[in-house]
Amino acid sequence: MKRVAARKPSTRAAVLMVAVVLALGACSGSGGKKAEERAGAAPGAGPRLKIAMVTHSGPGDTFWDIVQKGAKAAAAKDNVEFLYSADPDGGKQAELVKAAIDKKVDGIIVTLAKPDAMRDALAQAAAAKIPVVSINSGAGESARLGAVAHFGQDESIAGEAAGRELARIGSKKALCVIHEQGNVGLEDRCAGARKTFGGDLQNLFVKGTSMPEVKSSITAKLQAGKDIDGILTLGAPFAATAVDAAKESGSKAKVGTFDMNKELIASIKAGDIWFAVDQQPYLQGYGAVDGLWLLKTNGNVIGGGRPVLTGPAIVTRDNAAALEAFAERGTR
Amino acid sequence: MTQAVAEPPVTGPDERLGRRSPLWRLLGRPELGALLGAVAVFVFFSLVADAFLRATSFSTVLYAGSTFGIMAVGVSLLMIGGEFDLSAGVMVTSSALVAALTAYQFTLNVWAGVAISLVLTLALGAANGLLYVNTRLPSFIITLATFFMLAGLNLGVTKAVTGNVASDSVRDMDGFGSARAVFASDVGIGGVQVNVTVFWWLLLVAAATWMLLRTRIGNWVFAVGGDAAAARAVGVPVTRTRIGLFMGVAFCAWISGMHLVFAFATVQSGEGVGNEFYYIICAVIGGCLLTGGYGSAIGAAIGAFIFGMTNKGIVYAEWNPDWFKFFLGAMLLIATVVNLVVRRRVERSA
């Protein structure tokens, strides 16, 4: 469902002063009027920008929560008013982008999970001279649709990393658990993993919105194929369920996963889960806001028009402890 | 939905007055078509999937069936009473979140969270019922509204309380072990591990069936679903029955929610959306009419079982997963059509 961060449209502060970053934490993204006055009063403050992020996230997804935290941190640092909205439906996501254009924001951050649906909206943004940065999915489409930069993980490269990890932990026949049927990025991950894995990797579709369903489907698959010795899940919450399913069906399958959350780090430390391929969502949100800010205030383009890779970062038992504190506060 | 008479048209003398042989009585049961459909689906997957007939596989199928079936009990009773509950799917998540959040945030024994969740979930059901009887709006609209509100609350409150969109893990808290034993453990039967949800499911089906067929309340439910005005005229407490039915759905949501908490220890706040349709589908496959007044809890259980078999049978058969949803839809269509044909035959020859 739509979660449009409806905020009072603030009159843009036309205070163009020396472009020095406002002292860290001096204002908050939600501070509206107050922050504006402070920006005007404090010498050396940058212009207050308004940046909208429109993603294809379903509600209640831990991953997008971390993206937003990154974006908000950068917004607070850069004196940016940050607006967030999302809709998993491509057409509705495009409408949200158009709404952002109507609000005359200074920059738009989008995900391109459904690039065709977003084409028109991005053309409108270009016509309105609003710079667009894409994050997460759509590295290949980003430049063609007019985005100035892309922050994300190349899903195929990340898949290849996961395939190598699966091979490293000694798996010969493994499952690739897809929790959202029809999502191109997830298919790419499995295809990438298949390339480097060397063994037999089968796709398994599960209904990601119902954990008991996920569990019983993985259990059923393990019962049908007793020789399956590896499971690759594509989202952190599904990894823990895969571990349960393997335990219950008496399978020796080792579990690896994409993405992270704080429960997962504990499981990796405990040895229940062997590895996580982290695309660092915090970095995607942070990078996109910072990238737009740099573009607006200094004309910089991070990555020089090429996609900036935020992953894959591999987390295993060896480095889990070092990341625990960050996962605990929900930013890793 | 308040509907006019849902009884099939009867020619000749009232069929309810005539004496009928036990065989005819069996053929007239709402769940017969579903039973035949279940047998067909079972035989089909036994033939095409090697792994399907193993006892361990059967327990997985039962587990999948039970996670739908528990809710289908409450939902089918409500449908017999002529109403829908579209908030049933997210109510499961709400119930689970209440237990996990209260137990964690106040550092309580998890059983306290379980109890608080029971009270609040039943209150939710009562609220649905009260809104319905007081506004006279269709239950479809009322529960659609609560569906959205609950989905929003699940996310909003969880995020506000924990700072993340999932609840914190309650795995290492007092009472988790015993609560897990009650709501999410495995019971060994003849070397096969059967999830405790299967027993909850059977228990609920038995209780609901007994209530429907052997008690006065059961008669009230059929009467309210068939023709509420006529029922009120003969002294059936229509309002109380309706509120009770919504609370019945809430009770089932609580059991399902507790299973979520203790099977997975953390609850994701965005889950559950869309499941309400699966519960309704189970009830419909099982012979509940969308117009109310007709159906059975056993039928809904068989519907859930068909759903579990189809869902997992496709995995056991190792079919190309790209076609998964097509197979699922085709299976449901076949099961429902078998059900329909049988019922029409029975009605014609009765």
Class derived from helix and strand content of chain B? mainly alpha
> Could you estimate the helical fraction of the residues of chain B in percent?
over 70%
Order of strands, widest sheet of chain B: 1-2
**Rg of chain A, alpha carbons:** 21 Å
Mean pLDDT of chain B, to the nearest integer, reads: 88
Q: Please outline the major beta sheet of chain B.
A: 2 strands, antiparallel
The major beta sheet of chain A can be summarized as: 6 strands, parallel
Distance between the termini of chain B: 28 Å
- Strand adjacency order, main sheet of chain A: 2-1-3-4-5-11
**H/E element string of chain A?**
HEHEHEHEHEHEHEHEHEHEHEEH
Poorly predicted sequence stretches spanning 5 or more consecutive residues of chain B: 1-7
Q: Biggest chain pair contact, residues each? A: A-B, 37 and 48 residues
Give the count of helical stretches of chain B: 14
Give the N-terminus to C-terminus distance of chain A in angstroms.
25 Å
The beta-strand count of chain A equals 12
Multimer state: heterodimer
Beta-sheet strand percentage of chain A? 15-25%
Order of secondary-structure elements of chain B: HHHHHHHEEHHHHHHH
Helix content of chain A: 40-55%
Radius of gyration of chain B: 21 Å
Strand percent estimate of chain B:
under 5%
